[in-house]
Design a protein that fits this description.
This protein has 16 helices and 14 strands. By secondary structure, the chain is of the alpha/beta class. Helix 3 crosses helix 9 and helix 12 packs antiparallel against helix 16.
């Protein structure tokens, strides 16, 4: 299904849902991104150093390869709403978003005082501070034209996992849920879209912890999801956009009658009967979604693939089905002359999910898109570290975007007592030069162009040969 067809179907479904009785309406829905959208994710360190937005973009790249879409990271580590408001013009609106997705709450709700003498008073203070700052953000958002607003409740703080050496801040996530509540109320009042990640991820954590008390989707610090948690976040976002049940492709062939019986998001041609099997040409409109099995990012222990233990992504969103009826006995499947596997007639009749087979030519093609996207993510991270220095350090000192010798001198005066600043000193010394930033942006642009070319599906030669 093309993105244009999907959007038409989506808007029809949304119209239909408006007239259903209230208990049947799904309250948390986000319209799919459209062609030429510029999507910006605004958040804190979970967005800044995380992968969920990159995983979402990878879905669009492989599922809708001809779609012109840009997804940008506008997260900065440590940010609360009050800091986000101060960088709206220079770091967010300057990206000209057509869709702006805003998430906050982890830093807004505070930390250590939950284990102090007055946790309830502390929670009240932090929620009020966040609410007051958000009202300023809300005013700015209300003045934007041509931008779809999406408010997204933060991934949770996991108080329940058994993590050695890490005492949880009891009551912190309850304060975060109060922040989610005023986000939801604002979205309703302003006719903006809304998605809560907190409660669904908490429920998934509870389920995992019934089998393993140490399991969590929120990382070893209870705060920052690892790649598995980011994959779950991406899944929940894509599901809210209505993609559950949206197949990569489905092809069905009746081998006995030599005819194609189903083509979903693909085209089959040149069906031929061979002496010991059948063959045909297969051109899908999409690629299977590739799942990274390597932990990516600083301090990561889990891979994107590890997220599948928590959510049915493969079953709901990554089905590339080959169904062949009218066979007898076992048959060998080859694609472009490469052996993929041997299955029984019963297995072929039920359907083989090619998206689960990492050695198919189309999956290998998708892996190329994934690796290019990861290279793009690495370069984008440099820009986010540069933004951290600008807005966390230079802006309060009146040196925002100064990028001169004086700025570097002021930085050097503080790196002895600020480890985070010290770690970014070398990067800033490069990024302060416009020629360097332009070179990085050129690299990103080239990677995006290559990603889009690499994502275009190719015609594949499929053959089933009897195994005697």
């Amino acid at each position: 299904m093309s993105i244009r067809s999907f959007q038409k179907a989506w808007h029809f479904l949304l119209f239909f849902l408006l007239f259903l009785p209230a208990p049947f309406v799904r309250a948390q829905q986000i319209a799919p991104f459209a062609d030429n959208d510029r999507v910006v994710f605004l958040g804190n360190s979970i967005t800044d150093g995380g992968h969920y937005h990159s995983f979402i973009w990878l879905y669009y790249l492989t599922r809708f390869p001809e779609m012109n879409l840009t997804v940008q990271n506008a997260g900065i580590g440590g940010d609360r709403v009050v800091e986000m408001v101060k960088r709206l013009d220079g770091d967010v609106f300057s990206k000209r978003p057509t869709v702006l997705i805003t998430t906050f709450g982890m830093n807004d709700s505070g930390y250590f005082e939950y284990n102090g003498s007055e946790p309830d008073k502390f929670a009240d203070e932090k929620v009020k501070e966040s609410y007051d700052a958000f009202k300023e953000m809300e005013k700015r958002y209300q003045q934007l034209d041509g931008t779809r607003m999406v408010l997204m409740g933060s991934s949770p703080y996991d108080e329940r996992a058994s993590i050695e050496g890490n005492t949880p801040f009891k009551g912190k996530n309850q304060a975060m849920l109060r922040i989610v509540d005023f986000q939801k109320a604002s979205a309703k009042e302003n006719n903006w879209e809304f998605l809560d990640l907190n409660q669904p991820m908490t429920a998934l954590n509870d389920s995992l912890q019934r089998e393993d008390p140490t399991a969590t989707l929120c990382g070893v610090d209870r705060i920052h999801p690892d790649n598995d948690g980011h994959m779950v976040m991406a899944y929940l976002f894509l599901k809210a956009q209505g993609f559950a049940g949206n197949k990569v492709a489905e092809m069905a062939v009746d081998a006995a009658r030599q005819r194609v019986t189903s083509e979903v998001n693909c085209r089959l041609t040149d069906l031929r009967k061979m002496e010991d099997g059948i063959s045909f040409r297969y051109k899908a409109n999409s690629l299977p979604y590739p799942l990274d099995t390597v932990p990516r990012g600083w301090g990561s222990k889990k891979s994107q693939y590890d997220g599948l233990r928590a959510v049915p992504f493969m079953e709901e969103m990554n089905q590339e089905l080959l169904i062949v009826t009218g066979l007898n006995g076992r048959h060998r499947l080859t694609i472009d002359g490469e052996e993929i596997g041997v299955w029984s007639a019963e297995d072929f009749a039920k359907g083989i999910n090619l998206a689960a087979l990492t050695h198919t030519p189309q999956y290998q093609q998708a892996l190329g898109v994934m690796h290019l996207n990861e290279e793009r993510w690495e370069i984008e991270r440099r820009f986010r570290d540069y933004a951290w220095v600008q807005y966390n350090f230079f802006q309060p000192r009146g040196l925002l975007d100064a990028n001169n010798r004086r700025a570097l001198q002021v930085m050097d005066e503080h790196i002895g007592t600020d480890g985070w600043l010290r770690a970014k000193r070398d990067l800033y010394a490069k990024a302060m030069l416009p020629e360097v930033r332009k070179a990085w942006q050129d690299q990103q642009d080239q990677l995006l162009s290559t990603m889009r070319q690499c994502a275009l599906p190719k015609t594949r030669e499929i053959a089933l040969t009897a195994v005697h």
